[in-house]
Amino acid sequence: MNDVLRRCCRGSALAIGMAAALVATAVPGRAAPGASPATGRAPVAGRASVADRASVAEGASVAGRAPGAGQARTFTNPYQRGPDPTEASVTAETGPFRTASVVVPANADPGFGGGTIYYPTDGGQGTFAPIVITPGFTGPQFSVAWYGPRLASQGFVVMTIDTLNPFDVVDQRGEEMLAALDYLTKQSSVKDRIDPARPGLIGHSMGGGGVVRAAAERPGIKAVIPLAPWDPNSGFAWNVKADTLVVGADNDLIAPVATFAEPIYKDLRSAPEKAYLELGNAEHVFSFVLPNTLIAKYSISWMKRFLDDDTRYDRFLCPPPAPGGGIKQYWDTCPDS
Hints:
By secondary structure, the chain is of the alpha/beta class. The protein has one domain (2-22, 48-63, 75-332): Alpha/Beta hydrolase fold, catalytic domain (Rossmann fold, 3-Layer(aba) Sandwich), CATH 3.40.50. The protein has nine helices and nine strands. It has helices spanning 2-23, 50-53, 87-91, 147-152, 170-186, 206-217, 261-266, 286-289, 293-307; strands at residues 99-104, 115-120, 129-134, 156-161, 200-204, 223-227, 243-249, 274-279, 327-332. It has a nine-stranded mixed sheet, with helices on both faces. The longest helix has 22 residues, at 2-23. The N and C termini lie far apart (41 Å). Residues 4-75 have low confidence and may be disordered.
């Protein structure tokens, strides 16, 4: 499977590089007066901290951060799912939930090109937050397929999609993932397992750029993760109101972080919480389309924290991780970081 991905994505990487050369000069540059500091660590004025938001998000309250081992604990968060997380659980290939999948045909909805839904089979823990995952330019659905069961096994309903055309560009991918989200929450065979009020988006490359545009268009999106995002106009990030984790790669020659990921992070003026994870010794394609434990750990932790309001995952995000172990650098708006 990995060899197939490598052969497929090698062509995708070339196509993306050619598109970058053509489009970069045609897309208007972003207007970014008063850009954020390089570190991106100062929270936006008036923004509630992670700890503050834990007790008020969506009318739910959480009884503080998880206490130490052996202490009694009382949770009032109706969205909390699964056992207490550990380093082993957030880095495991399979989480605590058994999953099943259902294929969505390409003709199921005119707004996107079909996909696959992965969902927990446990019907005794209520509904789960939905997440739509979109591939990059020329990338097929299976280039992001590994994210589906991995996230679903942690307690999400996840849909990986194909675009209508593999050459669809950033704004088209944004519209397609919103169409897929509407299908997933309103028409799919698993819609009764979903809480439509807590949606999330993940996308790679142009799919990552599409994530930003989709979240800017629909303020009800709760949390997003653009992976190696490609979009020459980072100004769309100004209108994103979702908690956002931007992931970049230090050796990315297709979407260099200084041109794409970092400006998007700095332009997240309205995001309640944001973070920027830069992978070390990583590049644009294989670091993201092949299973990556580091990406999985922080994607799971981010979505559990901000879609499920589950403060048990705070410890994987705040205080921020130090460089090393595959992390080149990490910026954030954690309190006191």
